[in-house]
Every structure is written in C-alpha cells, then in structure tokens.
Amino acid sequence: MGTLIAPTNHSPLEDAEAIRKAVKGWGTDEKVIITILGHRDAIQRQKIREAYYELFQEDLIKRLESELSGDFERAMYRWIVEPSERYALLANIALRHADRNYDVIVEIACALSPEELFIVRRAYHNRYHHSLEEDVAANTSGHLRQLLVGLVSSFRYGGNEINAKLAQSEADILHEAIKLKDKNSNKDEEVIRILTTRSKIQLVATFNRYRDDHGIAITKKLSDEASDDFHKAVNIAIRCIQDHKKYYEKVLRNAMKGGGTNEDALTRVIVTRAEKDLNDIKEIYYKRNSVHLEDSVAKETSGDYKKFLLTLMGKED
User: Fold this and answer.
1) Alpha-carbon distance values, 315 to 38, 112, 292, 295, 308 (Å)
2) Better pLDDT: 169 or 224
3) CA torsion sign, 6 to 48 to 72 to 273?
4) How many CA atoms lie within 13 A of 119 on its CB side?
5) Residues in Cβ contact with 156 at an 8 Å cutoff, skipping those fewer than 6 apart
6) Are 6 and 41 contacting, i.e. CB atoms less than 8 angstroms apart?
7) I want to staple 187 with a disulfide (CB 3.0 to 4.6 A). Which of 89, 177, 207, 288 is the partner?
8) pLDDT at 223
9) Would you say residue 186 has pLDDT above 90?
C-alpha cells in the first residue's frame, strides 16, 4: 500500500494555473508546488504537465528545474517524470556516476515486475538512444557484467508453479558456489543462470530450501562471505527477489545511519515507492528500529526537501 494522498476530483487546468502563478515573477512559492504535486498520482501529474504546456507553451519540468534547487529539485524532478522514465533516469545516473552504483541497477531489475522492467527498458532506449543492456555492459566486466546484463534483460515467468526438486538442486548449487567463492568460475556462472532465468516464486522456494538445509539464510551467508562487486550484486538481487520491502527498509536505514545522510538513496526509495508500498515499508521500518520513518526523515532533512518527502509519505510537516 502506498502513502500518496491524491484527490479524485482534481482539475489539471486549475493545477497548472496555480503552479504557473507560483513560479511566475520574483521568487517561487514552493509551498504551492508541494501542495499540488505532492498530492497527485502519476496519471494526474502527466495531465498537469500536458495542461501546463497547452496553456503556457512551456515544459513544466524544465520550468521547475530552473525555479527549484538542490535535493528538493532533484526529488521533484524524479517525482514528476513518468515512472518508467524515472527508473531509466536512475539507472543512467547510477552508471554515469564516478563510483558506479550497481545496487540501483540490481534493484530496478529485481524489484520491478517483468512487465514494468520491459517498459523501463523501452523508456531508457527512447531517452538515451541506446539500450540499458548496452550501457550496463559498457560499464562492467566479467561475471558482474554477465549478471547485470542478464538481470536487466530478463523477462521472468510470472506464474505460481514451483518445482520442489529444482529448488533443492539449485539450492545445492548456490551453496557450493558460495563455499567455493573466488575459486570456481563455473559455479559463478551457474549462480548467474539461476538468478537471471528462474521465476521469482521459484527462486524464493530455492532460497527457503537453502535456509532449511544449511541453517542460515543465503543472504546472511553472502553478507559474511561477500567482498567483491559480483557477490555484493548477487546478495542484493536475492534480497530484492525474496522481499523487496525489507530490502528497501534497509536502504532507508543505511541512508540515515551514521554521520551523514544519503539523500540520493532516501529520495529514490520514497519517490519510487510512495505510490506502491511505502506504507508497508514504513511498518517494517518501525518494527525494525522502534522509530517512525517520518520522524527519522524529519530529523535528517530540512527545508522544502523535508516538507516534500513528508508530503509523499502522507504526513504534512
């Protein structure tokens, strides 16, 4: 369940006119922008963009880019674009960054449904004029490249069938691969084959079989053993496939842990999950940390950025 609170009777024309008034002249009324766009779903936001262009012959996104700044501008930009474009943007940024963030690529590939991922790949193609697979391959090598290209190009079966014998045999393969980490490349290739071709429900059965047979969760074993980018990516893929909500809770927790705040990670999770399952993630966060997610976010952020994130989370500042 998402946290976005959107009206059912909004007028795109009225919203567009109100936003125009908020950005016209000296100064910008950020409160109006947050109040409107922070309470509109993806379809409503698209209609506002269309209405704004029809009324003023101006791209609303470009106007907001020029009027806003910092973390608030980046969060608003990621929010107002269509969801598929947003994921395409996040993937491209992750690949272009000096410290390439492969976590984001794995997250997009494994947390989305096969249909959603297919649409994201098309959006990436249209936006950047080459494929997501091409850019992933160009920025990786070895087994990491094989894994990431396989994940982003996968179109998994979405049915409910489970093959128990297959789960058993592939749990054994995963166990051997982790045990022989860095010693047997053939085993790593088998891990790639399993993670990039099996349905999510089949993989969950395999991970459960691993836990039952070896007395430890495969993610815990990988956390103890993992050291290089490939095994870290394997771990993230398994976490996302097994329970993406728990995975996102951990991303949020880590984003606000320690001396600083990872605003990119914080923004990414809140913006991408507000219309999906952020309410469930909030509950997991509270059970894990005995603190409400909104309170943690309010403590770690400030200004219009803080107000906007809290609005998306269903809590007005």
Assistant:
1) 11, 26, 11, 10, 10
2) 169
3) positive
4) 11
5) 114, 197, 198, 199, 200
6) yes
7) 177
8) 82
9) no
